[in-house]
Amino acid sequence: QVRVVESGGGLVQAGGSLRLSCAASGSAFSVSALGWYRQAPGKPREWVATITAFGSTDYATSVKGRFTISRDNAENTGSLQMNSLKPDDTGVYYCTMRNVWGQGTQVTVSS
């Protein structure tokens, strides 16, 4: 059974950095795409980034050039490095694999 657990959120000033982690269980990790989404208060959940099983990456326009998604198949983990953070990046960040979602981790960027 697949499970994903996010960690690494916190409070940071604008311009700062955070690194989110996603720990996944299940033998299908290395053949599965991994995605990050976020949800700001009062707004729908939005896609942030995806990394395929082969390591190809794609990013939302709003984060391209600032965020980097990666994965470690040996450790069954994924990461989202977030640099040059803006207040608009505030929200709960979710990791997903095979349509299974974690509980989310809060990111708050102060101005």
Uncertain ranges: none
Q: Tell me the Rg in angstroms.
A: 13 Å
Task: Please give the count of helices.
Answer: 0
Structural class: mainly beta
- Amino-to-carboxy terminus distance: 41 Å
Q: What is the tally of beta strands?
A: 11
Overall morphology: globular
Order of helices and strands: EEEEEEEEEEE
The overall pLDDT average reads 96
Largest sheet: 7 strands, mixed
Describe this protein's structure.
The protein contains no helices and 11 strands. Strands 2, 4, 5, 6, 9, 10 and 11 form a 7-stranded mixed β-sheet that branches. A 4-stranded antiparallel β-sheet has the order 1-3-8-7, with no helix packed on it. The model has no long low-confidence stretch (mean pLDDT 96). It has 111 residues and is mostly beta strands. The protein is globular and about 40 Å long. Strand 5 and strand 6 form a beta hairpin. It has strands at residues 3-7, 10-13, 18-25, 34-39, 46-51, 57-59, 67-72, 77-82, 91-97, 100-101, 105-110.
List the helices and strands and how they pair.
Blueprint lengths: L2 E5 L2 E4 L4 E8 L8 E6 L6 E6 L5 E3 L7 E6 L4 E6 L8 E7 L2 E2 L3 E6 L1
Parallel strand pairs: 2-11
Antiparallel strand pairs: 1-3, 3-8, 4-5, 4-9, 5-6, 7-8, 9-10, 9-11
